[in-house]
Design brief:
mainly beta; 4-stranded antiparallel beta sheet; OB fold (Dihydrolipoamide Acetyltransferase, E2P); single chain; 41% strand
Length: 93
């Protein structure tokens, strides 16, 4: 008969790589068409003029220009307004 007690099962030992989310181009930087500006989960930042929002909420540049971040108020489903960051691409001077 064995003298070693039974070991428990290991849980939560799988490790997945990071998703590399976040801001890729900051305010004042130049963007070309199709470049990724922000990778995010959900609509933490809103796409404005000169941007396209893809199905996984990634914000891409729709035209060449300079990235600009502004704060604007957005109405929620319940009717209250909350501040949200809006990303726009303005024409380079």
């Amino acid at each position: 008969m064995s003298h070693v007690k039974a070991g428990g099962t290991a849980k939560n030992v799988h490790d997945s790589p990071g998703q590399r989310l976040g801001v890729k181009l900051f305010g004042g930087q130049k963007a070309k068409v199709g470049m990724v500006i922000v990778r995010q989960v959900g609509m933490t930042k809103r796409g404005g003029k000169g941007t396209k929002v893809s199905s996984n909420y990634t914000i891409h540049a729709d035209r060449d220009g300079i990235v600009k971040y502004t704060t604007r108020k957005v109405r929620t489903f319940s009717g209250r307004t909350v501040p949200r960051t809006e990303v726009t691409v303005v024409d380079a001077l």
